[in-house]
Amino acid sequence: MVKHGKKYQEATKLLDETKIYSPQEAIALAKKMVHTRFDETVELHLQMGLDPRNAAQQVRGVALLPHGLGKKVRVLVFAQGEATRIAEAAGADLVGGDELISQIEDGQLDFDTAIATPDMMGKVGKLGKILGRKGLMPNPKSGTVVAPGDLTRVIEDARKGRVEFRLDKTAIIHTPLGKVSFEDDKLMDNLAAVVEAVVKAKPSGAKGQYVKTASLTTTMGAGIKLDLKPTLSLTSG
What is 6-59+167-232's CATH number? Predict the structure, then answer.
């Protein structure tokens, strides 16, 4: 059993564990419960009614957060030829082919998003064990394997606050929403963007209740149960 410090215990006195909160209430409470000195990340956790072992019930997608994540996103692009020039012009932090692949094999993982052009995937594939564990492997389903003509748009999206989500082995989706320092309405907008993207990504093989439970928390905070109906009805725009 995890043993929490006095500050955590004091902060959680604000939380009624028997209550389910509206999205607005949960965001306000999460911010009040912060007990650390750093700018914690606000996170959404969704318990899904899906079987992670069933290929027809996999969920993977992308959400574009209108207010970003509150940090500089370092973008890496695997490219060659003209695609290299396009990626560099679009502001990618790291661009390259064979040399970049070798650097990653040697432990270079100082980036937040990896993008690749289709012609590079034959070489990038061998990095699967390294990048897959970190959730950084380029994948067509997540929109990170793109033609050179789409590189500028995808790189710009990544910088704005493009977040990937996927079902994990315990049937949960974990997604960051921004920082505690964000204004409440900005966190609400980001939450709406994620919820809308997850709802749209519902697989055809899903059966029964798609989202079972939802909770909001911060990096070092306690989970706050969200009322599903108003949460799932959120839309961006």
Answer: 3.30.190.20
Report whether 176 contacts 41 (CB < 8 A).
Answer: yes
pLDDT value at 160 more than 90: no
**Whether pLDDT at 4 is above 80:** no
Whether residue 41 is predicted with pLDDT greater than 90 in this model: the reply is yes
Q: Which residues contact 230 (CB under 8 A, 6 or more apart)?
A: 22, 23
Cβ 148 vs Cβ 83: under 8 Å: yes
Domain ranges of the chain: 6-59+167-232, 75-159
Please, what is the Cα angle at 157 between 152 and 160, to 5 degrees?
130
Identify whether the C-beta of residue 92 lies closer than 8 Å to the C-beta of residue 78: no
Tally of helices (H runs) and strands (E runs) in the chain = 9, 9
The SS3 call for residue 102 is: helix
Mean pLDDT, residues 71-77 taken together: 90
CA gap 22, 226 in Å, rounded: 6
Contact 178, 42 (CB under 8 A): yes
Q: Is beta strand 75-78 parallel, antiparallel or unpaired with respect to 94-96?
A: parallel
Per the CB < 8 A criterion, the answer to whether 208 and 32 are in contact is no
Q: State the average pLDDT over residues 23-28.
A: 97
Question: Which CATH number does 75-159 carry?
Answer: 3.40.50.790
